[in-house]
């Protein structure tokens, strides 16, 4: 992909909206520093109108003078905008629902009222010298004609970017591609996609949006965010690198540590099979896979673990074959006698079934030593 793509991180805003998640001031500062060090170009750091504590945190992040754009989420109201200005922010995401259901039920506003609000509030923010992104909340359920008019109105009033949000996560990659291609083509300013993961599609939808023309995408570390979360920074950045050869400026090898840091601060467990950063995603147990991998790692790996600062792990367990077992034994200087291979595989399988787990290297050595002792006993005629 030749276009430059910007992955804008909203861990500190949408990520912290995940139920029960609270970052301390110190954690916010550390996360912001790590995001910047990892090459994230823009961080949405909070919601100024939440009050003094949030404003203090936003000001503290600003004071770090990180080499990134800092933005904050604001409802499209003077009160929210003033709170952002009080923080000293120079960029804001001014958000207004785009769908009828949200406009009417939440705000009691019709479409023309929404357009008037956008015109008035964007002009006000832009006149104050702010970089203005307009967030179209629930855009994926909005009327397309209205979305076109939102884009036109916001751009005319001085917005520099439009953010299309799939707020309740109802798009799929096909509908995302089609919608973004349609809107980005008529958008005279930058275009951002903000996906949610309610159907497990946020990452895929984000890639589809980028391929359809979005130059910006919202992401969060680990996909932390409202309900099922957002598109995960680590998944989108790595998928773009591996599938499209695209460079987002993100330091891929920094992502696992960043994920640990955010998981700790969020007090969330990272699932072992979470792509890129989960404990087991570069671990291989299955016999045929390990036999293939030992010949050429491309047989069973989408990416080289080293790309993201990780290591491949061969695990011995219920599904191991003789090649894997011989390989692990060789690491402790033991040669698996070909005559004992089938018996060793059977013992490993029995042991793994018994303990319902994988087998550690010391356990494997113990099994092998017993087998050798038994075999030697048989050779000597001792039963
Ligand atoms: C999809 C998203 O994630 S968008 C991001 C949402 N972020 C947040 O909500 C941040 C955390 N929220 C809060 O701290 C609080 O809800 C606050 C400070 C924003 C508002 O607090 P309160 O004044 O107590 O309002 P409350 O939460 O009860 O209701 C939300 C109000 O915002 C209004 N509102 C919601 N979205 C918008 C919008 N985009 N533009 C203008 N007004 C809006 C609602 O109509 C409602 O107003 P009402 O009280 O007149 O009915
Ligand atoms: O307002 C926006 O830009 C996006 C807000 C959001 O987090 C969402 O709609 O999911």
Automatic annotation (TrEMBL):
Instruction: Quote the catalytic activity from the record.
Output: acetyl-CoA + 2-oxoglutarate + H2O = (2R)-homocitrate + CoA + H(+)
Gene3D superfamilies noted in UniProt = 1.10.238.260, Aldolase class I
Q: Which GO terms describe its biological process?
A: carboxylic acid metabolic process; nitrogen fixation
The GO molecular function terms of this record are: homocitrate synthase activity
Q: Which domain of life is it from?
A: Bacteria
- Record's Pfam families? HCS_D2, HMGL-like
Q: Describe the location of the Pyruvate carboxyltransferase domain by residue ranges.
A: 5-256
- The catalytic activity of this protein is classed by the Enzyme Commission as 2.3.3.14
Q: Which UniProt keywords apply?
A: Acyltransferase, Nitrogen fixation, Transferase
Q: Which PROSITE patterns match?
A: AIPM_HOMOCIT_SYNTH_1 (PS00815), AIPM_HOMOCIT_SYNTH_2 (PS00816), PYR_CT (PS50991)
Which PANTHER family does this one have? HOMOCITRATE SYNTHASE (PTHR42880), ISOPROPYLMALATE_HOMOCITRATE_CITRAMALATE SYNTHASE FAMILY PROTEIN (PTHR42880:SF1)
In the record, the note on similarity to other proteins reads:
Belongs to the alpha-IPM synthase/homocitrate synthase family.
Role noted for this protein = This protein is a Fe-Mo-cofactor biosynthetic component.
Protein name per its UniProtKB record: Homocitrate synthase
